[in-house]
Amino acid sequence: MEKNKEQILRAPRGVEDVLPENWHLWRKMEAAAREEFELSGYYEIRTPIFEDTRLFVRSIGETTDIVEKEMYTFMDSEDSSITLRPEYTAPVMRAYIEYELYKTKKFQKFYYIGPLFRKERPQAGRLRQFHQMGIEAVGAYDPLLDAETIDVAVRLYNRLGLKGYKVKLNSIGCENCRPGYRKVLRENLNGYKSGLCENCQVRLDRNVFRVLDCKQESCKEICYKMPPIDEYLCAECKSHFGIVKNALTDIDIPFVVDPHLVRGLDYYTKTVYEITHPSLGARDTICAGGRYDNLISDIGGPPTGAVGFAAGMEATMLAIQNTTNVEMQCVASLPAPMVYIVSIGDETKTRCFSLLNKLRASGISADLDYEGRSPKAQMRTANKLNTKYVLVIGPDELSKGIVKIKDMQTGEERLVEQADIMDALKT
């Protein structure tokens, strides 16, 4: 009797399984990221999937959407609140402080690849369990380092064969020049308060910069009427931003300055940037980053300059699939064993299994049938797997100590002594 579909357990809303036939693209993305990051001197760091909730409240900001609405938080004990990490930068900086890495080598470069968790409304490329690959350069205030991180992101997307992306850039100033802009922004937005969404009306008093990051169309239209922050930047921030722009121009990276780009996390200072792709619609960001010179001191470490980015892997994958006709979109992408062993008769199975393990021990990928199927069915499987060679062992081959080798590309068959099989496959 067929089970009632309502009784089948399914994955929770907003999460996805990555099935074997889809891993080719994930692996290509991860391999490209590791190669590009390590080429630029970044070293992998892995942090726990959950952290003390206070880390994210202090770093991201109490009035951000992430902290107010999106974090998966639970009590680990009576006095311990734990949160599944919603972003990577704060955990990496926590590790930098906890292990006093700045004492051994102040300037360090890290990269990460892994899952994160936010209670967002699920949509294409935006999941509740999602994945990011990113870098953090810690221990320097040099604006050229900002340009380097953008360059690394661009080279990563070029390596993946992605076309049509756009780099957007802005400066949001520092603690010296932001207060003046905050005052002007609040005064101007108050004139449009009735047109703002409910959340932004609250943000006007609590954290007015969050209004600029709102995704509601009505709020975005109002924000475009606001004076840009570059009119209020201090001399140091203007100089810093100028060096970043000139450096990107010198290395031929096209960009546009978006005066209303602020990013949604409180810890950013000076440079902020996004990489977007038009194939994704309204939520078109595939990579975002910037400088966060105050974050490490805000969570208990010494004053330290830092800059980095995070690239959304699901969003990047969608952009690639939407616009790029490359090998990694091929359906036949599962890894194929070099050798498939076909056994004929029950008495040959033990010998085939022994040969299978000798092949694997020699570094030759191999597989065989465990379902007791006919020789024809086994050959069909070898064909579907795109196997290079098929080894056939039947009663006659077993008694004579030989193996039949079939080259699946040419159809050529030959008999080889079992003792010589390894050499035969390497020729």
Outline the secondary-structure elements.
Blueprint: H1 23-39, E1 43-44, E2 50-52, H2 53-60, H3 65-70, E3 73-77, E4 80-84, H4 89-98, H5 101-104, E5 108-117, E6 129-138, H6 143-159, E7 166-171, H7 178-190, H8 198-206, H9 209-212, H10 217-223, H11 235-250, E8 256-257, E9 269-276, E10 285-291, H12 295-298, E11 306-312, H13 313-323, E12 339-343, H14 349-361, E13 366-368, H15 375-384, E14 389-393, H16 395-400, E15 402-407, E16 413-417, H17 421-426
Parallel strand pairs: 1-5, 7-8, 12-13, 12-14
Antiparallel strand pairs: 2-4, 3-4, 5-6, 6-11, 7-9, 9-10, 10-11, 14-15, 15-16
Model description:
This protein folds into two domains: 269 residues, 2-Layer Sandwich (BirA Bifunctional Protein, domain 2), CATH 3.30.930; 88 residues, Rossmann fold. About 1% of the residues have low confidence. A hairpin with a 2-residue loop joins strand 3 and strand 4. The protein has 427 residues and is α+β, with helices and mostly antiparallel strands. The longest helix has 17 residues.
